[in-house]
Specification:
The protein is of the alpha/beta class and about 280 residues long. The chain folds into two domains: about 30 residues; about 190 residues, Rossmann fold (3-Layer(aba) Sandwich). The protein has nine helices and seven strands; from the N terminus they run H-H-H-H-E-H-E-E-E-H-E-H-E-H-E-H. A hairpin with a 4-residue loop joins strand 3 and strand 4. Helix 7 crosses helix 8. The chain starts with a helix and ends in a 5-residue tail after the last helix. About 20% of the residues have low confidence.
Length: about 280
């Protein structure tokens, strides 16, 4: 009788041990399956940090390293870098098209007036370029920009536009009109080497009520550089020689109205043009 009870107890222990072993094996297998199911998430592709030509808002929110930079970032092939001084003969090959900041080049006789293309009133507004006329220096006639380009076929053209536009043009409107202008010039004279000049900064005392601020100008200059890239032309960062440490036009560089350059600052711009040549 005792032997039977002993055998029964031994059998129960054996079964219990076997069940424990089976439960342990099952638990290990289940844990392994759970771990393997998480593996794809650990190896998922990283978000690209390379900006696209379109909307990059998704990239800006992806990680701090992909946030948009605060300064113009056009391709090094677009922004003109420092070169040897190209000389006055280089400047003599240019037509200067633009607003009142371009008109001043002729007013102060920094370059001959026959190289200046502006409307009769002295300023060209970006939003009105397609209907505006410029005074064609060869005969003083007032003709559309496209017609003037077809006649003159300039070797180089420096375009300085947008300071008035920043007060009321949003990014889409600004880029659309500026791009159309560049493309029109390219169609009229495919061999003309076009440079888009940065918009000049304004003085710290310029009335903000006019809708033009250095913050808007800085933003618009990134658009200008992007337009240069998309149309295959060059960008000149001449504003860099006009800004003070506060980001505004140096007080001694304007003519008293906190916007328009004086003769000395125009000379700085032309020197920058000469030493950042388009070869």
């Amino acid at each position: 009788m005792k032997k039977n009870r002993h055998d029964s107890l031994y059998f129960s222990w054996s079964v219990s041990i076997l069940l424990c072993i089976l439960l342990a094996v099952f638990a290990l297998g289940f844990t392994s399956c759970r771990k393997s199911s998480h593996k794809p998430a650990e190896t998922s592709p990283a978000v690209s940090e390379t900006p696209s030509n379109g909307d990059n808002s998704s990239q800006e929110s992806a990680s701090p390293s992909s946030a948009a930079p605060t300064s113009p970032t056009g391709s090094s092939e677009v922004r003109l870098g420092e070169t040897d001084d190209m000389g006055q003969e280089y400047v003599d090959k240019f037509i200067f098209l633009g607003d009142s900041t371009t008109y001043g080049l002729g007013y102060y006789e920094i370059v001959p007036k026959n190289q200046i293309w502006t409307p009769k009133n002295g300023t060209l507004t970006l939003s009105l370029w397609s209907t505006a006329t410029i005074v064609y220096p060869e005969d003083n006639s007032e003709i559309p920009i496209k017609e003037a380009v077809e006649k003159a076929k300039p070797e180089y053209m420096l375009i300085t536009l947008g300071v008035n536009g920043v007060s009321f043009m949003d990014e889409e409107y600004f880029i659309k009109e500026y791009t159309k202008l560049v493309q029109t010039i390219q169609e009229a004279s495919p061999n003309t080497k076009i440079i888009l000049n940065s918009i000049y900064p304004i003085g710290k005392n310029y009335p903000a009520s006019n809708g033009i601020t250095n913050e808007k100008i800085d933003k618009a200059n990134t658009w200008v550089e992007r337009i240069a890239s998309s149309t295959g032309v060059k960008y000149l960062d001449s504003e860099s020689v006009l800004k003070g440490s506060d980001g505004a036009l140096v007080e001694s560089y304007h003519n008293g109205d906190s916007m328009h350059l004086n003769a000395d600052s125009f000379k700085l711009v032309i020197n920058y043009l000469r030493t950042h040549g388009y070869k």
